[in-house]
Amino acid sequence: MVDLSVKIGSLTLKNPVLTASGTFGYGREYDPYLDISQLGGIVTKTVTLEPRQGNPMPRIAETPAGMLNSIGLSNVGVEKYLNEKLPLLADVDTNVIANVAGNTIDEYAEIVSRLQHHPRIDAIEINVSCPNVEKGGLAFGTDASVTAAVVKGVRNQTGKPVIVKLTPNVTDIGVIARAAEDSGADAVSCINTVQGMGVNIHTRQPLLARIIGGLSGPAIKPIALAKVYQAAQAVRIPVIGLGGIMGWADAVEFLIAGATAVQTGTLNFIEPAGPVQLIQGLESYCITHNISRIADIIGSLEKRPVK
Length: 307
Ligand code: SIN
Hints:
eight-stranded parallel beta barrel, 20% strand, alpha/beta
């Protein structure tokens, strides 16, 4: 038997596999494909104070090794999230992490104050990294002092674990991760999408209506690994790794680079049962390598000998 459990602050995950916000709906949409109770947890679609339509279409485009999105945080708003979406998860035997975004620092705090008493929410992930909105999102997460203010505002509202989802679109992710840690975050997740665009050469139009969006999928895995490594070197709190994880071996790389847990995103669109296959693969890897606790490989990157 392999112990696959890991800890994110006071939160215990039965295994290190979470599904990323915005790629797994509100959870139950994936019932036909997998038993969501087998996951370490699910991160639900970003919720905002008011419902949002999102950005104009087209807002998704395929790229050779991933996808571009410019959804614009389309969601039902906090009221419906509490009253209609969370009750659907009442009997699910896994952690539910609510992902939250606001237009202002006060809005982040207000949403969290509304969510924080709900018994079905086990932790809160703060989205300061969406590249597809005018206010909040990336504009907040690229500035350490604004990130710190958002985290403080949220921290004052809740005792539940607070995870801060960071953008790779910065010079030094360690600086932003440290600002989150110093302001009371329990963990950071790295990374949200990398800014990108595509052009249709026949129409000369951008692939996305909003021109620039966020790139995810295998193309960004090496970027994500480097950011996870840098963040893990910079902070003592756990780092959750995501970005192009398509199979268990990718997840192992993230754990060795310093991630305590991982999230799958683009994988969920391509192979909806993929996250559960990933858990099975992690267990087999541990058995093959005589590892009794998966937590033992976190941050276990070896130095290469100098020649
Ligand atoms: C979006 O809704 O535009 C994507 C979510 C994100 O990048 O955080």
